[in-house]
Amino acid sequence: MQAHKIPLFKHWVSEWLARAIIFSILMTSLFSFSFYSSPAAIMGFYGVQSTDVQYAMVVIYGSTVTFLALDFRIVKYFASRKYLLMAIATNGICALICFYSKSWSVFLVCQFVQGITCALMSGIILNLIFPRLHSTRARVIGYTILYAGIQISVPLYSIYCNLVLQFFDFNWLFCGLNILLVFLTLTVLVTMNSKARFHKKLPLYQVDWIGYLLYTSFTLILGYILIYGRQLNWFGSPLIGGLTILGLFITLLFVLRETRLKRPLINFKIFGTRNFVIGLLLLFVFYIFKGSTGLTYGYLEVVLGTDPLHVIPIWIAVILGTVLSMFVTARFILSGINLIHIIIFGFTVMALYYIYMLLFVSVQGETKDFILPMFIYGAATGILFVPIVSYTISAAPPKISFNASLVGIFARFTGFCTSMAINNELQLFTRSSVREKIREAVNDTNPQLSITLQNIQQTYEITGNDLKSSSGASTTYLNNLIKEQIIARATRDYYDLMLVGVIVVIIILIFLPKIQKVVLKLRGGNVPY
């Protein structure tokens, strides 16, 4: 029997067991993204700043995005089990290196390599699943399961990581990853055929390695500019200015090269379809709004003083909201409801999340008050993800539609980076604005300031502190109160702007009737990313 006709799984592996193994491989491939569920732990372990942690996220995400374009060809050369085991082994080696090293540079390099292994592992799984799903119903359900797994991986691994970090140092997360990889390796060896492959073996000729290097360089430069731009004063910094010029030059080279190749990484003709471009913009905007939850978790930790273990109900609410809404949305898609109508409803639910946060964000509150809004947030992301992806892919020209997924994941990456850039910029602006208003009111000429300090000091004296200790403690306590007020007010201002943005998107979608003419067409053989 020809290798590409041999089943990947051995004959005794049932269909449901095969599906469970596929899903476990997919979730394992996303494990490396879990290291960022506790930024404070990373900053403390490596001695870096918050922007450094953000850029590390860009490195692993960008590495995954760019290698997926190359993986489309490479997966056709190797036997599937061998390819998968190679990815698992590389991932395990990187985790082992990080376990014994406290070097930030080594961690970044390993994150880049682990981004590639994520692309390798997920590419195998996606090529296993989607070419076999020929009916629209099967493909919608496949999209739903895939993107539900991606969506819930972040809160799910956040729960795991925070439980581990309660008892161990940060580097023990790498040990946990290696234990998981060992079990996965044994499972693959036992259940998969060694000679099976998805396609006839194709030689690795005319693979655009130079295009891949250009694409990767541009992606990492773009991420660096967006993350460090605010810290380095944007174009006031020679470094940012130089990187911008370099990035534009690399982009020009990449576009010129890809338009001349017979087998390009990305076929730029796909941008000639207007509704496809609108779909990319929707993905981009969606990821900007999706990235605002980091502010919520920061508010819970700093202002409300919520312990990481007590944030677990919040993450569970996000998981439940995401899963339930995605499967309900899949039913609506299959019933023939217009995709744009579902997307408008999803953004409306996202607006409800922002409204709820505006009503409840203050210096006083309880963690349980935010379980419902985070469930609403999970529901909003679940409602939006599959319809936007389906709309984008359905709008792509049939002959080059496989490029839609590759461009779509880059749009998601760009939205993710832009979300962090906007967050950094707006947080600095809003906190500075609030701090200036407080400074105008809270000063030595305001008699209420001295009265408040005296009341706080008397409270400390009553508890048995001496005069000097009470005076210092009262000043520290007041400063903490002011800090909490600044964060709460800045958070509200940020959500105000996000709410305005969501409303603008909804209005645009309502008053652009031509975009509602896209018909759901999820073509067999295409692999989503």
Please characterize this protein's 3D structure:
The chain has helices at residues 15-29, 39-46, 50-74, 80-100, 104-129, 136-165, 172-191, 209-228, 238-260, 274-290, 293-302, 312-334, 339-360, 371-395, 402-441, 447-462, 467-510. The mean pLDDT is 82. The chain is globular and about 80 Å long. The chain has 17 helices and no strands. 73% of the residues lie in helices and 0% in strands. The two termini are 31 Å apart. The chain is mainly α and 529 residues long.
**What is the makeup of the main sheet?**
none
The total of helices stands at: 17
Shape: globular
The average pLDDT is 82
Report a brief summary of the structure:
With 529 residues, this protein is mostly helical. The chain is built from 17 helices and no strands.
